[in-house]
TrEMBL record:
<feature type="domain" description="HMA">
    <location>
        <begin position="125"/>
        <end position="191"/>
    </location>
</feature>
<dbReference type="InterPro" id="IPR027256">
    <property type="entry name" value="P-typ_ATPase_IB"/>
</dbReference>
<dbReference type="InterPro" id="IPR036163">
    <property type="entry name" value="HMA_dom_sf"/>
</dbReference>
<feature type="domain" description="HMA">
    <location>
        <begin position="200"/>
        <end position="266"/>
    </location>
</feature>
<feature type="transmembrane region" description="Helical">
    <location>
        <begin position="325"/>
        <end position="346"/>
    </location>
</feature>
<dbReference type="InterPro" id="IPR001757">
    <property type="entry name" value="P_typ_ATPase"/>
</dbReference>
<dbReference type="Pfam" id="PF00702">
    <property type="entry name" value="Hydrolase"/>
</dbReference>
<feature type="domain" description="HMA">
    <location>
        <begin position="47"/>
        <end position="113"/>
    </location>
</feature>
<keyword id="KW-0812">Transmembrane</keyword>
<feature type="transmembrane region" description="Helical">
    <location>
        <begin position="292"/>
        <end position="313"/>
    </location>
</feature>
<feature type="transmembrane region" description="Helical">
    <location>
        <begin position="597"/>
        <end position="617"/>
    </location>
</feature>
<keyword id="KW-0813">Transport</keyword>
<feature type="transmembrane region" description="Helical">
    <location>
        <begin position="943"/>
        <end position="966"/>
    </location>
</feature>
<dbReference type="InterPro" id="IPR006122">
    <property type="entry name" value="HMA_Cu_ion-bd"/>
</dbReference>
<dbReference type="InterPro" id="IPR059000">
    <property type="entry name" value="ATPase_P-type_domA"/>
</dbReference>
<dbReference type="Pfam" id="PF00403">
    <property type="entry name" value="HMA"/>
</dbReference>
<dbReference type="InterPro" id="IPR023214">
    <property type="entry name" value="HAD_sf"/>
</dbReference>
Amino acid sequence: MASKLLALACFRIQSYGDLSPRPRYPSMPKYPKGVADQESNVQGSEAKAVFSVVGMTCAACAASVEKAVKRLPGIREATIDVLNNRAQVLFYPSFVDEETIRETIEDAGFEATLIQDDTNDKSTQVCRIRINGMTCTSCSSTVEQALQAMQGVQRAQVALATEEAEVHYDPKILSYNQLLQAIEDTGFEAILISTGEHMDKIQLKVDGIRTDNSMRMIENSLQALPGVQNIDIDPELNKFSLSYKPEITGPRNFIKVIESTGTGRFKATIFPEGSGGRENHRQEEIKQYYRSFLYSLVFTVPVFLISMVFMYIPGIKHGLDTKIVNMLTVGAILRWVLSTPVQFIIGRRFYTGAYKALRHRSANMDVLIALGTNAAYFYSVYSVLRAATSPDFMGSDFFETGSMLISFILLGKYLEVLAKGKTSEAIAKLMDLAPETATLLTLDDEGNVINEEEIDSRLIQKNDVIKIIPGAKVASDGFVIWGQSHVNESMITGEARPVAKRKGDPVIGGTLNENGVLHIKATKVGSESALSQIVRLVESAQMAKAPVQKFADRISKFFVPLVIILSFSTWLAWFLSGKFHGYPESWIPNSMDSFELALQFGISVMVIACPCALGLATPTAVMVGTGVGASQGVLIKGGQALESAHKVNCIVFDKTGTLTVGKPVVVNTKLFKNMVLRDFYELVAATEVNSEHPLAKAIVEYAKKFREEEENPVWPEAQDFVSITGQGVKAIVRNREIIVGNRSLMLDHNIAIPVDAEEMLAETEEMAQTGILISIDREVTGVLAISDPLKPGAHEVISILKSMKVRSIMVTGDNWGTANSIGSEVGIETVMAETKPEQKAEKVKELQSSGYVVAMVGDGINDSPALVAADVGMAIGAGTDIAIEAADIVLMKSNLEDVITAIDLSRKTFTRIRLNYIWALGYNLLGIPIAAGALFPGTGFRLPPWIAGAAMAASSVSVVVCSLLLKYYKRPKMLENLVIRGITIE
């Protein structure tokens, strides 16, 4: 039994080298013949089965199971998890059943058992919500605590910089509507962005609707369509917002239904502001602050002139000092009248925010502003009323304090929102990659084009055939069904070199077709597309908080109450000092008394202290840093990854596909018997074609060169094929026993290895190549040398890392000879060879226990345990599976130099965060004592409240601008030197 299991297993990585398969485009749905045309009907009956698969040891095993399952009719998708020994299969029960799938897996040489899928019992959805009205970290903390307190919420993150919440919740316990209501109850406006269900959204404008009955008729017609989940209607704009499942239906179906509903009188188009989302809200917020600031200036400028300028112009001063009743002057009345609209109408937002915060027993910036301006305003009202009722009261008012304070804060908020908008430019640029229009082709049964139509690219549906002309952007993810061209994928992958495309090759939406016409079949549209996945990944990264932000969150909880206490203490200290003659009366300005002087100091302390700068210090820098990374082809998954990456002092490299190109090729052949090389490779290829191992594929590809006249050569039939784990394969081809494998396989079969063959094997190992022995009829006939070329620039990258004081280690499943040779070639001193996937993870943990902060750089399934175990996991060359990688950082260009870029960018970002904190804390530590009058006794210098308000507004703006300077990040000059010396990074 044991030998049978061994015989049915596949190559182990340790024999042929750590040749994990290159990341590739996601597998495309496989439909049985004739099914594609009735896709919507079939899709409705889709089922899922999960199998326990025993015997898988490496990526090659997973690939062979996947390939076997996908050969079956009616398989939509098969996902093989070699680490957990599971296979998840999406299929159509009308074409195939679970038992057939299970038998197919067993036929592939593995033991399979159908298990109950328990994912539905532990389902988690991720809901994203936009939150309007947050002003500081106290606001975001209040919302976050309210969400986390709800039963069914597993995790909630609220980001002040993006004004969004990401909530992981159990849909069986609560709905997204309850989440929205919880946010509304905290006093903020909540707008749903996505529910976490696999849905797309589109907004349609319908012309021709005259009655409510027509509206209901259209709604009912749309609701009846399969795949439509939810419909929201705006009767005033005749706007229909639909949520739907893109694999079942699409926007063209909706338009067709709408236009056929009312005997042709309805006309449907995509709503002009379709998916503006966050950007539209941002623009509206900028306009609101701008308008509020302009309106406040209309009243504040006259108040300022009356208080500060006209008092020094004799004629005007006389008019303003004219008394109306008792000591009440014209100037005081004008200041009161002009400042009241600023205080209560234009400044209403601060009252609203303060009320909402206090209602939930928290305090934010609005509370400070409302308290400070109200103290100045109502003391001024008291002063004016007392002057009107007293013949000798000479008090002064502070009406200009409140109005100027509010005006400066509105200016600061306007500049802050303006600057914050620029921090998310990376997402806007990514979204702009999608073309606006596409050419839809209609094909007949023979595949001939019978019609071309230009449509909005948002109307593309799954399985549409799209024409891409030279110079046009690819409109959707899919694969080429006709034509050949070169496509520039740099806008998605960051790789500048155009990629050749021909029939069957995958293409990515948003990339640029350079020459030649392509017809592509759309496979992933809307939220499924690679571009959407990248956008979502960057958005999630900008949502995630860096651990260092916890410092600011802790401070913000106590900041506002502490400032209020300090403010009251300042007023009380100065008031009591004045009352009991604690300082000379000459210190008191002529225009006020000791109470007014104390009040000004107290108000200044209250308004100069700003928790906003602290709250924005980290998220704005993370937003800009992750955006810059995305533009450089380095996707950093949030603040945690950024913070860990800047501390990295040890990097563990996988060999194959990371330090090497990852595509093995036959570089040498040595025969020990007289025979034609073509005949030799005919026998070897016939044996190896049955194997999924990367080395086997390299041999088959090389063999094809001897049969160039055939596009897809058919090899002789191999009988009694057996794959021997960790050693090789054997089969009977043309009545001859063929054994292909390593030295131990030959010895196990009592096959003598000639001295020439041993020498050849030793030479291959010295040259960092893998040697394969071929036995025909139990006699060693030849040796193949297979090489996986080193990536250009690998040696230079390791050298640069050394100069950055980062230690480099190589861990591989390949043999020691090859590993040591590669290590010495690139300059890595510490090498571990013949390691299993779990041993890589153990090595990472061992380094961590020695005090290193470890990054793991790998590209295959077998690297996953180490990627997860490392402080920072870097996946290299992730293609379009970018959003589902286990790594913390994804290097889209597959360039080793991007490892340096990722570490350098994280270091620069954290330098910026530290500067932000130094400024925000330093500002408050310096500003509060000055506002409290620390300099007044010695210098007579005091900070009027309106100047304190301007300083507070400037602090937030300066922090955001400091973060924005990261946009000008340049890669280290050492990397530029690589290009100067003519080294091309593949």
